[in-house]
Amino acid sequence: MNLLSDLLTRLATHSGMLITVHATRGSVPREVGAWMAVWEEEVVNTIGGGRLEWDAIAHGRTLLGRTPDPQTTQPERVLYRLGPSLGQCCGGEVELQFEPVSLADVPALRARLLADEAPLALFGGGHVGRALVHVLSTLPLAMTWIDSRDKIFPDDVSHSVVCEHSDPVQAAVPTLASGSRVLIMSFSHAEDLDIVAACLTRQRERGDLPYIGLIGSKTKWASFRSRLVARGFSDSELDHVTSPIGIPGIADKRPEAIAIAVAAQLLLLPKTS
Q1: Residue 83, C-beta contacts closer than 8 angstroms, at least 6 positions apart
Q2: Looking at 69, 97, 112, which one is the last position of a domain?
Q3: Last residue of a domain, one of 97, 112, 127
């Protein structure tokens, strides 16, 4: 379960306090929009750790104890000076918003917090695909997991991951969310080729897929490239495909290692493209 799912699930039974980084100045641990949620004995997510987070948790729990009805209580904002007041070396300022939340807030919170999640489409439910879902479901990504085979997805997929059966698999490409990062690693090279071609066609028409990543070796991509040229794609269009995928320098080929390398590469991408 990812952090957003954890928050929303807990709110189904217990009201909590949502703490959000509302504004910052100078050097600070986390960016505007970073959030955490606290209950009397539980904490979900982080706003950066250290004394700032420790004090925020304590203040959030104090406010939670004073809040009989979250629906009638307004958010409170508190300014923290990290150097003078908290003794943290960052030295900047963080303004935190403390907001009581309950089950009634779940739809609005889902829409609000999901708005900051980048869409990602993963084609392929094999070993590397599963490892990637395990890693990426912990990150702020709105993930769609796609495969042409029946009964390929495990039962314990995170609530944040949408599993989709598509046959032919490339038929899912036109319906992907705008701005999707695409990872291609199906069980078949023929499927991989058709997915890449569909993504390039969409990129030609809409220009809204900032990253198209294909698993495989340089030899595989050289073969694909010649076939895609034969299908009418230009060199500049083909240059938009990343293959092999993952940050360079990691030779380990275990699915988990590949997943970490690919996740690192995705984190280097700009949030908007």
Answers
A1: 89, 90, 91, 92
A2: 112
A3: 112
Same domain, 134 and 225: yes
Cis peptide upstream of residue 84 (ω within 30 degrees of 0): no
Q: At what angle do helices 189-206 and 218-230 cross, to 10 degrees?
A: 60
Q: Considering the entire predicted model, what is its pTM?
A: 0.79
Give the Cα separation of 136 and 119 in Å (integer): 11
Structure tokens at 183: 């990872």
Average pLDDT, the chain: 91
Number of domains in the chain: 2
- The reply to whether omega before 168 is within 30° of 0 (cis) is yes
Strands of the chain, DSSP E: 16-25, 35-38, 43-45, 76-81, 93-101, 118-123, 141-147, 161-165, 181-184, 211-214, 241-242
42 with 131, same domain: the answer is no
Provide the domain limits for residue 54.
Answer: 3-112
pLDDT at 273: 46
